[in-house]
Amino acid sequence: MPEPMIPVSFPPAFLWGAATSAYQIEGAVREDGRTPSIWDTFSHTPGKTAGGETGDIAVDHYHRYRDDVALMAELGLTAYRFSISWPRVQPTGRGPAVQVGLDFYRRLVDELLAHGIKPAVTLYHWDLPQELEDAGGWPERDTAYRFAEYAQIVGEALGDRVEQWITLNEPWCSAFLGYASGVHAPGRTDPAASLKAAHHLNLAHGLGASALRSVMPARNSVAVSLNSSVVRPVSQDAADLAAAKKIDDLANGIFHGPMLHGAYPDSLLAATELLTDWSYVLDGDLAAINQPLDALGLNYYTPALVSAETDVNGPRADGHGASSHSPWPCADDVAFHQTPGDRTEMGWTIDPTGLHDLIMRYAAEAPGLPLYITENGAAYDDKPDPDGRVHDPERIAYLNGHLKAVRRAIEDGADVRGYYLWSLMDNFEWAYGYGKRFGAVYVDYATLERTPKSSALWYGQAARTGALPEVEAV
Ligand code: PNW
């Protein structure tokens, strides 16, 4: 059936953004007093990233930020989500701030504001100062206190000009890819430590949110970005439903439980009791974590499909990278399956209904809380044509499908205020190195030259008109 020709339009104040993170784009890792983060150490450890690639240079955004902001403005974006590199601001993870480090972000923010682009700051997108990891990292309670101090420093420095704040990006990845499966920095494979890390990330979020509020104007908005999973059972059999519930607890409830409701799910506590006794959850922690929020950020790429496991030694298909260690503590009795359908270059199935379902779930989980899609996008094997242009119709189709799902959720009553495409430009895709291109803007890694892909032009047109262009329009 042909698509109806009615334009899919969005509320006038809807934010059309793009997102990045510090380690993935900045480079300049040894400049202006910056010290190594766990991602510098990890990427420089042989065998940890594809081809041994690192973020040493990345896409040199630290030196090219002015051009990058000009490009965003040219495309028509109205918002930009970026993260602050903690070791640029506090090289040892403690003590006074490095002013040149903060100055870089002040200049970036002022440049954005001068171009009418709304900045959204993520405080922590995975680059823990190495010294804090050496002192125990996220499984250690002190790291949460250090994060609160860092949040206060950045809030004081930028709170007068940045309204939108995000404490943590995807704490699930920090805890479970970092400390259980080990495919992310710091590369530890200790399931008990990963659960402790999750609690201390929750605590960091709560203490960080309070610290931000104590130093910032009340008009500013404080949020967190969760990579909440849409977890589907393969059947409605009780065993498969229980498997889906367990993964939902370990992916979602473990974070939104304390953050939104002030409690860990009882079913999560029961499922993990052989591994951990949760004795590191001290009196007052849950109240400290359960801070009132102004918004919730959701990052979505693909849904999960699970069943009860009968062959506990079978291969995993959860799309979380190659590791013989699971990122799911206490879930060897759950099997992951590939969701049917076309996939992106990451092997992640394209499923826009998952985004609709995720939004509706959180609209119900947190009634009244404004929602933002703080990441959504796709990796494809983009290559310039002989004329130098980069055509990426698959990415346009992906964005179109997912933005329609957002629009459908708004029609269904969800209060979605904005969308940040992952990513503004091609960048360092963590363990996959530079091989996976998520950008709307193509980066030639030999020259670092930026070229908007056709998806960037399509998306810019959506941003300027507030409606989705025909997919053949660019
Ligand atoms: C997110 N997983 O990472 C991050 O926030 C971005 O920095 C990243 O570039 C983007 O998504 C694309 O990968 C994820 O294995 C990494 O489930 C891995 C997973 C999920 C998100």
What features would you describe in this structure?
It is a single chain. The chain has 474 residues and is α/β, with parallel strands linked by helices. The protein has one domain (15-229, 290-301, 346-465): Glycosidases (TIM Barrel, Alpha-Beta Barrel), CATH 3.20.20.80. It has helices spanning 22-25, 38-43, 61-75, 86-89, 99-114, 130-134, 142-158, 171-179, 191-215, 238-261, 266-271, 285-289, 352-365, 393-411, 454-465, and strands at residues 8-9, 15-19, 79-83, 118-124, 164-169, 221-226, 231-233, 296-299, 304-308, 334-337, 371-376, 416-422, 441-443, 450-452, 467-468. The chain has an 8-stranded parallel β-barrel, surrounded by 6 helices. It has a 3-stranded mixed beta sheet with strand order 7-9-10, covered by helices on one side. Strands 1-15 form a two-stranded antiparallel sheet. Strand 11, helix 14 and strand 12 (416-422) form a beta-alpha-beta unit. Helix 7 (142-158) packs parallel to helix 9. The protein is globular, with a radius of gyration of 21 Å. The mean pLDDT is 96.
